[in-house]
Design brief:
The longest helix is centred in the N-terminal third of the chain and has 18 residues. The protein is built from four helices and no strands. Helix 1 packs antiparallel against helix 3 and helix 3 packs antiparallel against helix 4. The chain is mostly helical. It has one domain.
Length: 81
């Protein structure tokens, strides 16, 4: 697999943008319906998308992983985020 480098400042900005999107997705109930209609399959909803975005944020170094792992624990416990 070829390697790709990313300047630190660019990684920080991308991580901040991902966090903004995560927060926005969680702020609007109508967005859930719109997202479900766009994706077209109930197996991948906003919660799964937010989890993927949290993982990417963590991999970029924009998060210590606490929100990612807290979300995993809540999913395992059956709690809402």
């Amino acid at each position: 697999m070829p390697s790709t480098s990313l300047d630190t400042i660019d990684a920080i900005e991308l991580a901040e943008l991902l966090q903004f999107i995560i927060d926005w997705l969680g702020s609007d109930k109508q967005l859930r319906c719109s997202f479900a209609g766009f994706v077209g399959h109930p197996a991948y909803g906003i919660d799964e998308f937010q989890h993927d975005l949290r993982r990417f944020t963590f991999l970029l170094g924009g998060d210590d992983g606490e929100t990612l792992f807290r979300a995993n624990r809540a999913d395992a416990d059956g709690e809402d985020q």
